[in-house]
Amino acid sequence: MMGDDIGERPRGLGIAAALALAIVVTALATATLLEGPSLDDYWTVYLADPARSLDALINERWIQDIRPPLFDGWATLLSRIGLTSIPIARLVSNLPAIVLLVYAARCFGRRLPEHGSFHTIFLLLMLSTPATAQAFGVYRGDFWQLASFAIQVMLTRHIMYVQKDYRSRDDGLLALLALPATFFAITLDYGGALFGGVLAMVTILAAIARGLKRWTRWLAIVTMAAVATVIYTISWQNSAWIGSFDLYQNWIEMGNGSTFSVVFALLFGTILHNPIAVAGAWLGRQRWTRGDTGFAVLIAAALAASLMAVTQIDAQRRLVTSSNTADIAVLVVALMATAGTMIADRRLWMNALTAIAALSTIVAVTAHSLGGAWQTAAKQIARIALECPGTPVYAASGWRLDDGSKSRAARREEPVFTLGYKRLGTTHGFNPVILHPDKPLAATPGRCPVLIWIEQVPPMKRIKTEKLFQQVGITGLDRAKISLTRTKSGLIVRADR
After folding, report:
1. Residues 434 and 418: beta-carbon distance below 8 Å
2. In degrees rounded to 5, what are phi and psi of residue 495?
3. How far apart are CA 293 and CA 160, in angstroms?
4. CB proximity list for 164: less than 8 A, separation 6 or greater
5. Which of 108, 125, 181, 305 qualifies as a cystine partner to 151, CB 3.0-4.6 A?
6. Whose CA is closest to 445, among 391, 378, 394, 384?
7. Is residue 254 pLDDT above 80, yes or no?
8. Mean pLDDT, residues 56-81 taken together
C-alpha cells in the first residue's frame, strides 16, 4: 500500500512554525479590519439586508447572486445579530473558518504523526499565499471556500497514506471535519465546485484503488449531495440570471486581463511567495517515497484536469477571475508542501521557510489593503468638502463608462452601487447624489467645485471627458475646468469654474 514505505520524518516544526502561524493570522486579521470596503463587500451587505424579511431576501436578492446562496445565509445571520460594520463582519465571518482549518491540520497531523510536518507546512504556505490575503480581506465566501478546499486536500493526503479503512474510533473526528469541508468546497462557489468536484473524484478513485471501501462510500455520498445541491441552486437562480445577464463579461471587475494571465499569476505567484519549500524537491530528493510520488501525481492530475475544464468553459464565456479560480493556489501549495516535507528536519531551511511565510503574508496584505478600495476616494472627497463646505458630490457606477451601461447586467448592480456610495458618504460626512443617464441633472461649479465619484473603473480604461458627462447623466459642465484623479478602484472628476 502507498503508505507502507514512508520513512521517519519530523512530526512538527516546533516553536518557529507556531510563531510564524501567529504572525500570519494576526496580519490577516489586521488587514481585514483596515481594508476599505469594495463592491464585493457591498454586494454581501445588499444580500444580507437586515431591514428585509428572510423570504424577500431569498426570493428577490439571493436568487440574483452569481454564487450559491450558502454564504448569503451566514452573512444574513450575522447582520441579524447586529454585525453591520463591514470590517468587523469580515473578521467575524472568517474567524470560524480559520479556526476550523488550523484545528483540522492539527487533527490530521495527530492521526498520522509521521505526516505532521506536511500539514504544518501546508497550513503555513496556504495561509500566506497572496490568494488567501485577497480572499480573507473581502466580505464574501471566498476564504470559507479556500479553507474548505484546503481541508479537502488534507483528506486526500490521508486517503493516500492511511493503512486502515475508516473506523469511527480513529477517524470519526476527521470525517466530521473533512466531509462537510468537501461539501462546502463544492457548494460555496461555482468556480470552486469545479475544483472541489475534480479533487473529490480523484480522491474517490484513490480510495477505491487502495481498498478503502468505507471512505469511498462516505466520499461518494457527500460528493453526490454536493453536486445535487449545485445543480439545484443553478436551476433556481437561472431564471434571475436570464433576466439580468445580457452581458456575460463584467468588465468593471475583470478588466482586460486574460485567462492565461490570471492562471499564470495563481500558479507562479504562489510558487514565488515561498520558494524555500520548492527547494525541498531537490535537496530532499533521496527521501521521496512511492507515497509522496503518488500524492504529487494525484494533486497534479487534479490541477491539470481543473485547468483544462476552466479554459474550455472560459473559451465559451469569459468567466475566469482570480477569485473563482483561487483553488489553483491551494493545489500548488499542496505540491510545494510535499516537497518542503523532504527537508523538514533541516532547521535552517525550515526557519527560513517559516520566516518567509510570515514576511510574505505581511507583504501580501500590505499590497492588498493599503489602497483602501472605495474608501480612498471617499477620504479625498471628504477633505475637499471640509475645505469648501457645500461642495456638491455626485456619484455613478463604473458601468456608465462602457458600452454596456444600458444593459440589464448594469441595472442589476445599480442598487449595490447606490448602497455603497450612500453608506460610505455618510461615514465620511457627505451625501452623494446618485446620477442616472435617463434622468440627467444640471450642475454648475461656483465657489466650490463639483465632484463626480465613479467606482469600479479599471486603471487601463481611457476616459474621454467630452463623453463622460453624457455617460453619467450630468449637464452644465461644458465650460468648467475638468481634472481627473485616479484612485485604487475608480476615479474622481472635479469640475471648477
Report:
1. yes
2. -115, 115
3. 10
4. 170
5. 181
6. 391
7. no
8. 95
SS3 string of the chain?
A: CHHHHCCCCCCCCHHHHHHHHHHHHHHHHHHHHHCCCCHHHHHHHHHCCCCCCHHHHHHHHHHHCCCCCHHHHHHHHHHHCCCCCHHHHHHHHHHHHHHHHHHHHHHHHHHCHHHHHHHHHHHHHHHCCHHHHHHHCCCCCHHHHHHHHHHHHHHHHHHHHCCCCCCHHHHHHHHHHHHHHHHHHHHCCHHHHHHHHHHHHHHHHHHHHCCCHHHHHHHHHHHHHHHHHHHHHHHHHHHHHHHHCCCCCCHHHHCCCCHHHHHHHHHHHHHHCCHHHHHHHHHCHHHCCHHHHHHHHHHHHHHHHHHHHHHHHHHHCCCCCCCCCCHHHHHHHHHHHHHHHCCCCCHHHHHHHHHHHHHHHHHHHHHHHCCCCHHHHHHHHHHHHHHCCCCCEEEEEHHHHCHHHHCHHHHHHHHHHHHHHHHHHHHCCCCCEECECCECEECCCCCCCEEEEEECCCCCCCCCHHHHHHHHCEECCCCCEEEEEECCCEEEEEEEC
Q: What are phi and psi of 321, to 5 degrees?
A: -135, 170
One-letter amino acid at 356 equals I
* Contact (CB, 8 A) for 123 and 21: yes
At 79 the pLDDT is 96
Residue positions counted in the chain: 497
pLDDT reported for residue 322: 83
